[in-house]
Amino acid sequence: MKVLVAVKRVVDYNVKVRVKNDGSGVDLTNVKMSINPFDEIAVEEAVRLKEAGKVDEVVLVSIGSAKSEETLRTGLAMGADRGILVNTDDLAVEPLAVAKILQKVTEKEQPSLVILGKQAIDDDCNQTGQMLSALMNWPQGTFASEVALDDTQVTVTREVDGGLQTVKLSLPAVVTTDLRLNEPRFASLPNIMKAKKKPVDKLTPAELGLGEGDIKPRLEIVQTQEPAKRQAGIKVVTVAELVDKLKNEAGVL
Ligand code: AMP
Predict the structure, then answer these.
(1) What span, in angstroms and rounded, lies between the C-alpha atoms of 5 and 61?
(2) For the chain, which terminal residue's Cβ has fewer other Cβ atoms within 10 angstroms, N or C?
(3) Residues 6+ positions from 184 with CB-CB distance below 8 Å
(4) How many domains does the chain fold into?
(5) Ligand 1 near 63 CB (within 6 A)
(6) Does residue 127 have its Cβ closer than 6 Å to ligand 1?
(7) 86 has which bridge partners?
(8) How many CB atoms lie within 10 A of CB 136?
(9) What residue numbers bound the domain in which 76 lies?
(10) The domain that contains 9 carries what CATH number?
(11) How far is the C-alpha of 74 from the C-alpha of 89, rounded, in Å?
(12) Could you tell me if residue 253 is inside a domain?
């Protein structure tokens, strides 16, 4: 059985992002980029399924500039077998465009399971997996905190408001990962070296049969703003003063 995993190159989660002076977006100059954390969990899950003998091949796909190859290499060092880079240069690809590209790759690769992150931490869209499932007309199990795979179906425990929901999907299917699904491994140095030699196919949306209209942005970013700065606090000397301020200034008592 083959599993396809979608991995996105995003600003590292430890970086405090800055907005460009003209408010047109986030400044990416000299910023550390990494694999999207939810996608790292997706790769880990696929590799564990392979180690358990349930999956024969783990294929990664990333859509973006040529630099997304680094993201693929990170996943390959964790144990995936090969990568596919769909080069969209610096064009901003929105979830629908990504989903259409993933649809073409899925049709070409014919995996039994596609695993994506529940959301990319740069756009926080939480849309691509759902859109891919709709385009493929495959069942979806989103926000997975547990995945059990057998030959014909996958059982997904989902993190929903106030509890867990378990769904059974017949294969082929789309699964998106939540934070508690697993703890991704650190790639060892020998595996990082080995990953440099693993194959990465390079494709363009046109080679997958997609036109400009399929991938062009549909949204216009009007403005990007930093969150409002926190106001400085004050020190009070007595409890009575605190209660007075809460009552008469803050109005919360
Ligand atoms: P989003 O809908 O943008 O929040 O992204 C959800 C998931 O879709 C991510 O966690 C990735 O698995 C996948 N995805 C989104 N954009 C890309 C991309 N450019 N390349 C590869 N996978 C992507």
Answers:
(1) 6
(2) C
(3) 40, 41, 43, 44, 78
(4) 1
(5) yes
(6) yes
(7) 63, 203
(8) 18
(9) 2-248
(10) 3.40.50.620
(11) 20
(12) no
**Is the pLDDT reported for residue 149 higher than 90?**
yes
* Whole-model pTM over 0.85: yes
User: Residue 26 carries which side chain, given as an amino acid letter?
Assistant: V
Q: Is 126 in the pocket of ligand 1 (CB under 6 A)?
A: yes
Considering the domain boundaries, does residue 156 fall inside one?
yes
With a cut of 90, say whether residue 86 has pLDDT above it: yes
State pLDDT tens for residues 90-130.
Answer: 778 999 999 999 999 999 999 999 999 999 999 999 999 99
C-alpha to C-alpha distance for 142 and 127, rounded to whole angstroms = 10
pLDDT at 24: 87
Using the mean position of ligand 1's atoms as its centre, give its distance from the Cα of residue 132 in Å.
Answer: 10
Give the residues across from 103 on adjacent strands.
none
CA atoms within 13 A on the CB side of 43: 30
Q: Confirm if 128 and 235 have CB atoms less than 8 A apart.
A: no
Give a yes or no: residue 201 inside a domain: yes
Residue 10 token pair: 């995003």
Q: Give the residue, by CA position, lying nearest to ligand 1 atom 6.
A: 119
What's the token pair of residue 222?
A: 């009007």
- Over the stretch 191-233, which tens digit does the pLDDT of each residue have? 999 999 999 999 999 999 999 899 999 998 899 998 888 889 8
* Protein residue closest via CA to atom 17 of ligand 1: 8
Residue 155 has pLDDT above 80, yes or no: yes
DSSP code of residue 151: S
Is residue 236 domain-resident? Answer: yes
